[in-house]
Amino acid sequence: MTKEQVWLALSVLDLRERIIFLLAVLGGMRPGEILALRWARVDLEMIEIAQRVYRGLPDDPKTERGKRQAALPPDFAFDIAAWREISADTAPGALMFPSERGTFLSRDNFLRRNIQKKLEKVGLGWVNFQVLRRMQASLGHKEKLDPKVAADQRGHAIGVAIDTYTESDLESRLEAVTKLERALAGGKQSNRGAKQESSSEPGFRGKRGKIE
After folding, report:
1. What is the bridge-based pairing of β-strands 68-71 and 46-49?
2. Which of 16, 29, 133, 147 has a CA that sits 20 to 30 A from residue 141's CA?
3. pLDDT at 68
4. What pLDDT band is residue 207 in, cutting at 50, 70 and 90?
């Protein structure tokens, strides 16, 4: 996807879908990791990934490196705060994205019915979770992010030597995903502080302004 296609997609997605979409594009998370998230592991700066959904059941992350702290860029955190405010159950053990029955969402059904169905209207019906994850990697490469930091954010290795002897910290990952957020917003600096003073409305903002 191009940056323009990402913005077009965001314009037709509702809040829940937009957050899941951006957790893949900005956060580099796998769909099973996203749909297994519980509120106890989510705050305004990072998500602790300790579980995934596999074939409808809770499971360990795909690899040991999958157990990680994925940083969240500052503007995106406003959308997550908004979703918390309107979620029916925000108890620590509650799912962040439950089905109507309170169970894990089906990855394939959610993608087809809630994301691709809307993206088809703007010519992006071909987008899937693999495309979103590749977008995160491609955008990070274009923005010259540290390869090790980017790999740690996505939860996979880039080579035995560097993977075994180095590990990026959360601060570096936060800087990395903030760069991605600004890249999608057209390179503008985050004005998080100004938004907090001037508006109580949360939301991921960029060159198009607040996405309702």
Report:
1. antiparallel
2. 16
3. 94
4. very low
- The average pLDDT across 120-133 equals 95
Average pLDDT over residues 88-105: 95
* Rg from Cα positions in the chain: 16
What secondary structure letter does DSSP report for 112?
I
Strand-strand pairing, 68-71 and 52-54:
unpaired
62 contacts: CB under 8 Å, gap ≥ 6: 30, 32, 52, 155
Q: Assign residue 144 a region (left: φ > 0; alpha: ψ between -120 and 50; beta: otherwise).
A: left
Residue 21 is inside which H or E element, if any?
A: helix 15-25
Type and span of the H or E element at 68: strand 68-71
Return the structure tokens found at 7.
Answer: 């913005």
User: How far apart, in whole angstroms, are the C-alpha atoms of residue 211 and residue 206?
Assistant: 9
Measuring CA to CA, how many Å separate 121 from each of 118, 155, 169, 207, 208? Answer: 6, 33, 40, 22, 19
Instruction: Say which range, 7-16, 32-41, 135-144, has the weakest mean pLDDT.
Output: 135-144
